[in-house]
Amino acid sequence: MTHEPPSHEMHASRWGDPASAGPLPDATRDLVELAFGIRESPAAVDVTVPVPSLSPGQLEELRVLLGPDHVLTGDEERRLRTRGKSTPDLLRARAGDVADAPDAVVRPGSHAEVEALLALAVRHHLAVVPFGGGTSVTGGLAPRREGFAGVLSIDLVRMKALREVDTVSMTAVLEPGLRGPEAEALLAEEGLLLGHYPQSFEYASIGGFAATRSSGQSSAGYGRFDAMVVGLTLATPQGTLELGSSPANAAGPDLRQLVLGSEGAFGIITAVRVRVRRLPAQKVYEAWQFGSFSEGADAMRHLAQNALMPTVLRLSDETETALNLASQSDVGGGTTGGCLMIVGHEGPDVAGRRALVSAALEGLGGTPLGEERGDAWVAGRFHAPYLRDSLLDVGVLAETLETATFWADRERLYTAVKDALTAELGDRTIVLCHISHVYETGCSLYFTVATPQAEDPLEQWRAAKARASQAMIDAGATITHHHAVGTDHREWFAQEIGPVGVSILRAVKAELDPTGVLNPGVMIP
Ligand SMILES: Cc1cc2nc3c(=O)[nH]c(=O)nc-3n(C[C@H](O)[C@H](O)[C@H](O)COP(=O)(O)OP(=O)(O)OC[C@H]3O[C@@H](n4cnc5c(N)ncnc54)[C@H](O)[C@@H]3O)c2cc1C
Questions:
Q1: Ligand 1 centroid to 326 CA: how many Å?
Q2: Which class for 458: exposed (0-12), middle (13-18), buried (19 or more C-beta within 10 A)?
Q3: pLDDT average, residue stretch 501-506
Q4: How far is it, in rounded angstroms, from Cα 365 to Cα 441?
């Protein structure tokens, strides 16, 4: 994977590199016009960033602690640290609404500075939001501010070191502010790789991956991010928690699992020890066609249950295949019919496994479509989020949702979520789905929704999201397979883990963060 690390900030009200923002390609625009109609968005609006509420004394303390260059109170810096990149976040940013901008952006350079910042936040009762890449899609960067003297965005951008490499144990210690491509570039210099490629890879950070239990597009081969983590350092208002002295143990419950997915509510992750692999000498990506989503899903289940996992394994449903979203960032163009599966193999020598996987897929009704479409998927794998902005530009509401369930319930969940979305959003809604991650016992379903924007698109999406979320819980599935809880999923997360689960989380929070300054209102119901 050769990806230049982003050297720039993301666009304030769109996904990604401002230079990559563009209109819909002509063919897509024609299709969109046919399906939804085109309604150009209004011209840019004025943005008024609220006056910061920190006192001169508080700002001076921060400057003494971090140095004046690392305490930022300018409008633009605060605007760029406001919320994340969900569709509601983008809609609000487009409308010029930055009412919940942090009062200051502070940039600690070490674990000790993070600890000192937490002590300062407790002293002055300031809420703190750890900021990694800013790609949250669940409101994880939008804490409650009521009752606090102000909000500090703790930007981990200065903590970008590869601290340690152990090629005997095959582990590496990474600092939290490293973005995906930066971490991979540092590891590649040692002949190593992590293998974590979420669609947000170009901007999301190591700390964010751990704090949200992220899952990447190569999870079939390299595992979810939480499976890669062997150790963590967490700064809390009560002191430092250092975890991971052995690869596995029976020393009580595994506290690493309490930190993974804690979304800044229990502390700030300042280092992550990960398991690494040798850089693969070979990479082959190919496409397969299956007659139906069910047939393709059964084939995936067979691979997962017979130790035949490739590195990448994804399957688009009929609608997603027809729109060709699986293999490129544009829609339309030549499609395969049926359902498209992407299969990728990476390793020192992939021929043996590829032959076994291919034989199994052919035996289960798959037709090989060759490497061209596989390579097209690789080339376009990080482009789709730009399409969402171009759709918003022409009055189409587009957003994604994800969940997971056991194989036996896959079909029921698929139908329930699709039905919930179309019932709420109406007949002109298009719902696409793919199986994005596969396990022996089940899989995740990733939905993309597009519908004409209503007068109040925020309310339109809130209602649809609520209905689809309830459908997930009612179907016995999880509210999130990899996007995390944030503020948006809390209500359904509470249903998923029940009152005892909620009280455990609250008790841990009360111990580690007695004054509640850490990301208030995020994750914990
Ligand atoms: C277009 C797009 C595509 C996406 N694709 C995927 C995908 O394929 N797979 C996937 O898993 N997710 C995906 N996401 C969701 C998101 O990218 C992930 O949740 C990612 O792990 C967040 O990382 P980040 O560094 O951007 O974290 P941020 O957005 O900065 O933060 C996320 C949460 O973690 C907390 N946090 C951040 N850093 C730390 C730290 N060091 N210590 C403690 N808490 C911290 C924040 O306070 C916040 O609550 C996608 C998002 C977008 C916008």
A1: 22
A2: middle
A3: 98
A4: 21
